[in-house]
Amino acid sequence: MLKKKNRLTKKEFADVFSVGDKKFSDHFLFIKVDKKDEIKISVAVSKKVEKLAVNRNASRRKIYNILQDNLEFFGDVNLIILITKPILNINKDKLEKEIKKI
After folding, report:
1. Which of 11, 22, 41, 61 is the most buried (most CB within 10 A)?
2. How far is Cα 38 from Cα 88, in angstroms, rounded to an integer?
3. What is the residue-level pLDDT of the chain in tens, covering all 102 positions?
4. Does 100 fall in a domain?
């Protein structure tokens, strides 16, 4: 899990979601806003993507673990990562490459 200082609040999430630049990949939608002070990230999974809460939470934890190991890679941004397809059966290395690619 990311430290609290590196997670978006509800207000920041809404702000980034409304004005951020959107980029798509195979399994993700990235919405980002450049900031000067620090990096803040949030991961969201829709009920349309994963029906069970257990699977949504597992997907979210999988991405947070990747982000925690590569936090310096992103620079100073506010970032929302929306998971658009099920990722539980995909290995960590493939997901990490996909996140770094964007």
Report:
1. 41
2. 30
3. 888 999 999 999 999 999 999 999 999 999 999 987 889 999 999 999 999 999 999 999 999 999 998 888 888 899 999 999 999 999 999 999 999 887
4. no
Q: What residue numbers bound the domain in which 13 lies?
A: 4-93
Predicted model pTM: 0.90
Total domains in the fold of the chain: 1
3-state secondary structure 30-82: EEEEECCCCCEEEEEECCCCCCCHHHHHHHHHHHHHHHHHCHHHHCCEEEEEE
CB 28 within 8 Å of CB 55:
no
| Residues shown for the chain | 102
Indicate which CATH number applies to the domain containing 50: 3.30.230.10
Rounded to 5 degrees, what are φ and ψ at 89?
Answer: -90, 5
What distances in angstroms separate CA 92 from CA 38, 72, 87, 89, 96, one per listed residue? 26, 18, 9, 9, 6
Indicate whether 29 belongs to any domain. Answer: yes
